[in-house]
């Protein structure tokens, strides 16, 4: 990607034709999900979308992992530097904005991040890196992930069996990961899941998980902003 920068290296403009290869995993028979995800990316030309037929398996989570490996193989074949990998239940939040998103993707790349989550239903410990990017030791949800080239071969070299769960596997593969906040992505609840049986048992669990994660991160972001605003007030006073 070619971007215009000041001498300091900060981004001052983004080319209007800048796009990110975006691979969406979808079981062909789930036509309602296909219609949904196509609508999500409608008129968002910053995403160069490819629908990837999911690998079908009696164990849904295993089929999803095989599908993700399929996406990574395609990214390597296409010589992609960065991709978005989506599940077909991804939906954009009201906080998604093109310029903001692309800026976060590029700045995370400069910080050698391996992957950037657009939104998570559960996380453990976080550390604010900027107002909108948080380092995290563990986070669930793979509905919208920005993956960078250095991570591709790590994924393909991961040993696995039919017990693998992508939500658990990805965070364990690298410490170089961040989440965006406010979330730009959540999961639409279709009332069923081909991957996670718990979602079929506990109705509304997806929305509840994302709501709780949002509540926690909002408090952490507020504390971060208060500290930085206070520091900004002190620095000029100390110099005078």
UniProtKB/TrEMBL annotation:
GO MF entry, a single one: transferase activity
Keywords: Transferase
The protein, known as: Glycosyl transferase
Protein source organism: Chitinophaga silvatica
